[in-house]
Amino acid sequence: MKLNRSTIIYLVVMIAAASLYRAFDNRMWGFAPQIAMALFGGMAIRNNKALAFGVPLFSLFISDVLYEVLYTKGLTSIRGFYDGQIVNYLVMASVVLVGFIFNKVNIRNVFMGSVIAPVYFFLVSNFMVWLGVGVVLYPKTWAGLVQCYEQALPFFKGSLYATLFFSAIFFGVYYFVNKASKRPAQMPVAA
Predict the structure, then answer these.
(1) Domain map of the chain by residue range?
(2) 9-61 residue pLDDT tens
(3) DSSP string across 104-134
(4) Contact in structure between 152 and 122 (CB atoms under 8 Å)
(5) Residue 91's closest CA among 55, 63, 128?
(6) What one-character DSSP code corresponds to residue 185?
(7) What are the Cα distances from residue 173, in Å, to 35, 69, 121?
(8) Which backbone phi and psi does 79 adopt, to 5 degrees?
């Protein structure tokens, strides 16, 4: 991804919109754009590693700050800062690595990545929950692991749908921004 004015504006708008959207109340569980953002970072911003990891993590952080503000004002029951949060950030950062697997941004790879990334996030993040990172909720038994994954299925469904939906938006807009920035400058027509 070449950093020009259009690209920078796109990234700023994407971060702001995704951060605000994640903090919306009453959205489907797990339906948030950050996994799609992490995938986008790995696939489309791969030549700038700091930006590839920074875009989704910064968006996640801003939305967590918004959640914390809303929580302290009594407007939501969801805390922005919680035990095990750093592990959640590390797992989200590792989703960027899923994007690095794909050598080319095309419809097939975006679709495959949009399925693989939420499955990966679901498996790893819930395994960490089962291990007791943050809060101990489940017994360290096979039944406890199964229960942990079963309880997380509504979040998985939402994250799968969200990643497909937001990937279509992020990569679609990225395609059109790139296409527009590659057009030759138009010479004014003399009257």
Answers:
(1) 5-171
(2) 777 777 777 777 776 667 778 888 999 999 999 999 888 899 999 999 998 99
(3) S-SHHHHHHHHHHHHHHHHHHHHHHHHHTSS
(4) yes
(5) 128
(6) P
(7) 17, 31, 24
(8) -80, 145
Nearest Cα neighbor of 153 from 29, 21, 67, 56 is 29
Structure tokens at 92: 């989200």
Q: What is the pLDDT of residues 103-146, one digit of tens each?
A: 899 999 999 999 999 999 999 999 999 998 877 789 999 999 99
CB distance 33 to 92 below 8 Å: no
In CATH terms, the fold of domain 5-171 is Arp2/3 complex 21 kDa subunit ARPC3 (1.10.1760)
CB–CB of 74/128 below 8 Å?
Answer: no
CB count within 10 Å of CB 16 equals: 12
